[in-house]
Amino acid sequence: MEKRQASKFYPYFDVEEKSVIDKMTGFFNSVVFKQQSLLTEFLDPAQRDILRTIAGNDLFMQDFGGYQAAEKKRVYLTEDWTNFDLSDYGVTAFSINYPNKFEKLSHSAILGSLANSGIETETFGDIITNGNGQWQFFGKSELTDFFQKEITRIGRVKVKVEPIDFRNVIVPEDDSSETSIIATSLRVDAILSGISNQSRSQIQNSISTNLVKLNWHGIKDSNIIVKVDDVLSLRHFGRCKVEDIRTTRKGKYKVVLRLWQTKKHKQRN
């Protein structure tokens, strides 16, 4: 198996993802030349997509992020198929205990505390809540002592971080909603314009300033045609997944979307 050249994959992704392509190519080459399996840090969907493109059919990819719908996951890269146990992924679930009858936590506050604690963001995964004040997150198992000793306060709230069994992982709150729009085109700018109530020129400006992603990758072209299962995100507004596309009698498109709006945008509405 030949060494991969990162530059070969640059044309397939946004220019700002070159450093990620370099890193994922390094993972591939490491497995091939050392002939050893490799376990990554927590990777987001875009990073995993890049790694999948680079690996092609030459390496096996298996991942785990702590629960079924996890966005950030650790990935095993292997030359041969291996049956891994969940414990092999080095992922631990943590509960954030605090007086939730009197205090409130938010995703942004928890993320800020973890990110500013002195560790890299790749060392922890998703942060989830059941919507009733219960919060959990997933991190590298080898950092269990660190999380317990260093994460003692989130904002002004005193907290206690405790590792828990995966059987006690909560069902995350689903704050999405289903909605539909009528669009004259399936272009990215038309769909985002319809769902966000912004003009197409505003969306085009957002695209040019790197505020729009398609399937977790930055895009520069507003002419891209979306399809079912595509995920679009517009910074400061939210994210939506295309669930269904139908043609109306007048030749327009009825697009059914699953929408996750940012908290701030919901509050403005």
Question: What does this protein look like?
Answer:
With 269 residues, the chain is an alpha+beta fold. Helix content is 25%, strand content 30%. It is built from seven helices and 15 strands. The strands form four sheets. It has a six-stranded antiparallel sheet with strand order 10-15-14-13-11-12. It has a four-stranded antiparallel sheet with strand order 5-6-4-9, with helices on one face. Strands 1-3-2 form a three-stranded antiparallel sheet, with helices on one face. Strand 13 (231-234) and strand 14 form a beta hairpin. Helix 1 crosses helix 2 (45-55) and helix 5 (188-196) crosses helix 6 (200-208).
What's the topology here?
Blueprint: H1 18-34, E1 38-43, H2 45-55, E2 60-64, E3 73-78, E4 91-97, H3 107-115, E5 124-129, E6 135-140, H4 144-150, E7 153-154, E8 157-158, E9 160-164, E10 177-183, H5 188-196, H6 200-208, E11 212-214, E12 217-218, E13 231-234, E14 238-247, E15 253-261, H7 263-268
Antiparallel strand pairs: 1-3, 2-3, 4-6, 4-9, 5-6, 7-8, 10-15, 11-12, 11-13, 13-14, 14-15
Helix pairs in contact: 1-2, 5-6
Descriptive keywords:
269 residues, alpha+beta, six-stranded antiparallel beta sheet, 7 helices, 30% strand, globular
